[in-house]
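Before the break, one more example. Copy the sequence into your notebook; we will annotate it together after we see the structure.
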Amino acid sequence: MTPFLLGHATHPDWRMALSLAGAQIDARPAPAPTLGFVYFTDHYAAQAPALFDALRARWPAVAWCGAVGVGVAATGVEYFDEPALVLLLAALPPAQFRVFSGTRPLGAFAAHTALVHADGTTPDLGELVAELSARTASGYLFGGLASSRSSVVQVADGLYGGGLSGVAFAREVALVSRVTQGSQPIGPPRRVTAGERNVVRTLDGEPALDCLLRDLCVDAAQPRAALERIRGTLVGLSDGADRALQRPGQFGVDTRVRHLVGLDPAARAIAVAERVEPGMQLAFCRRDVEAARRDLVRICAEIREELSPHDEPVPAAFGSAPAESAPRRMCGAIYVSCAGRGGPHFGAPSAELQIVRHALGDVPLAGFFAGGEIGHRHLYGYTGVLTVFVAD
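Here is what the structure looks like once it is written out:
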């Protein structure tokens, strides 16, 4: 696998942005690309058909996948709430990938992993993601939900709205992927002992609302103060067999952060934005910038460690053999971050992408700020999903 080619630009006219990004790509000699990733902000959403036609005309042999976002990302920089696009081109053997959509299914392709884009309004989206995960040999998906203040657009060798699309990779395409959390637990993990649909009635046998108030250290007799604290509170949900807190004070990778959507003072119950079942684990939490920074640094360090040789064996990348005598080269990366993480959340414009660049170096990276993130078989919120393609 050769290094990917990266181009990105901002300009009020999408044609000029494409020309600037294309010039960056053309300036670097490389094998003819076969697969392209394109992410563009919703300022260009209305012009998506013309943009896609221009991509096909300029690189006729390239299969394209991508999505619209309220922001897009490139190596060390983000374009948030401004007209911009980012292109990432790869020279992969065509037999090693397949672009798919609702009108172009995977068919008999032996998918090992897959980059997935989706429309958040799609019914039963969580179930569809889980089904697609089960169709891959590794069970691992990465990607996110297209985000837009106008039309939601997905690119998969055509333009689509609704459903899922993306590109599946064969076992020969080696990659390493990690999910970084952005929330901090404010209470212990508890087990759901009574609940139905999205209503949690008891946690560890206690009324769920009482547990919430105790973790927040608020008095129900002072409703105004209590509601102020509750508004900023989220819940972290994990399956029963998962370890909700794999590291002290931090969520594990399979924890899904969801909103509190209601309280029932009479039944002492709470409602959350996901279906719950007895046996699931739940911990109350809130978004935390420092926790997000630490966890992003952690996953970057884990990726670098996995790609470096050690005396003791480390887990192999998805679709690859264990490292032997030399570090495997990072050829390109895809980063999908929550739309609520970009911009000022990390303290300064592009601060989140600068953390990744400092940790991984100048690996060609493209991505977008999503309305929800996809990692493994789950839909996440307030997370980042970083995936690095590596040479054999």
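The CA atoms of residues 29 and 392 lie 21 Å apart. Residues 311-325 have pLDDT under 50 and may be disordered. Try to locate both features in your own notes.
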